[in-house]
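User: What would this chain look like folded?
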Amino acid sequence: MVLSPDFGRRPLRTLGRVPLIVELLASPTHRYEGRPTDGPAPAPPGELVDQIRIRADLGIAGDRYFGSLAHREASVTVIAQESLPAGVGLAQVRRNILVSGIPVDDLVGSILVLDSGDGPVRLRVTRRANPCAWMDVAIGPGAWRSLRGKGGVRCRPLDDGILRVGPVEVDIR
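Assistant: Here's the prediction, encoded as structure tokens.
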């Protein structure tokens, strides 16, 4: 369900789809360090999860950026499935939340509110999450260029809460 644009909220174009949280990633380790030609580190077991616990101003419990002062304004990342080639998910792009039906790249400066059934979680969309050269290794040649302008967004969590894979209510403020 998409909430109506009342009280000065902006209408949300849902790309003709029911908004969904498709995948969630909370990884305790970095996989893309060094040079892309060196290849990524192995994925830790259990980094793709069915739910995440978000803490206001801290990020996602169990994630590599949780509580990091340097990442406070960007501790949660969101990307739209529509931006990715078929079959590509969070394990490759290293974002935290993969959504469908929500044009997240258009939301910089907004507050994205997601509710997957456990109450609303507000995320202040602070800036774009620009792709890096690792995308040509993780996805395939040319991916870095094709993701420019649609690599997702970086957010500061404003609430404690839980997000789960599945249908999600969305509001933009």
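The radius of gyration is 15 Å. If you want, I can go into more detail on any region.
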